[in-house]
Amino acid sequence: xxxxxxxxxxxxERVKTLTRLAELTGELIATATRLAERQPLLGTAPPxxxxxxxxxAAAGESGLTGEVTAAEREVREFQRVLAAITTTYVDVDQQRxxx
Length: 99
What we know:
Blueprint: H1 8-37, H2 46-59, H3 64-98
């Protein structure tokens, strides 16, 4: 033993939590996408149209939607790595018990 003890159940709970976080983040992306698709009703004057365009861009792929999408990718990747690590620890422990 190397001095570390891993509790697979605890890691499994964290994987479930990250999975739920990723799902919620996906819902947030859908909301941000809908927001980006809406044209704010600010009037037809040039300054209002400019502001409406800026607000839509801020919610779009280069704004809020893009940022939340990137966060979702990172959460899903962390969840995947944590699940793989948990599986590796369990496999190694089972191999040691089987010896």
